[in-house]
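To assess whether ligand presence alters the predicted conformation, the chain was also submitted together with magnesium ion. Input:
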Amino acid sequence: KVPFTGLPGTNYERTFIAIKPDGTERRLVGEIIGRFEKKGFKLVGIKILHPTPEQAAKHYDDLKSKPFFDGLVKYFSSGAVVCMVWEGKDVVKTGRKLIGETNPALSVPGSIRGDLCIEVGRNIIHGSDSTQSANDEITLWFGETEVTNYESPLEKFIYERK
Ligand code: GDP
Ligand code: MG
């Protein structure tokens, strides 16, 4: 059985992806989910919630010494966030590639931030930056029973071997 935080280094690696309040407000949820789906990754957890400032601060704990931290906490807790767990081979690293650079101005066209947003302080999406942070973030935002294990017959078309 796959642990709910996934198995890094296998086809069952998992990452935490969140559509930030601006992405949700701008009706980009379907567009963003579509990009991860079309790539071949598997959605194993999803919910929408309005984070408290305390939850936002905990999520961004590693950035608490940054000058933009207070603004970031305000931004992340300003509205509805779509929290997701995505599964697949190298999904942490490849998910970050789909997302693009932190600053949308430096993100290549074709990436989510490169195509859909302009400023670093309104960059519409979050993705875990390592398998360790994926583990921590999935645990912060999801309970064990909120993440699902399922096999799809499509997987033989997505992976050469399981
Ligand atoms: P990410 O992993 O690419 O999201 O980037 P970081 O973990 O470094 O920063 C978290 C979030 O803080 C980013 O996605 C931005 O929304 C915000 N952020 C990062 N750097 C800056 C900055 O220089 N100015 C502002 N206003 N926000 C920033
Ligand atoms: Mg980060």
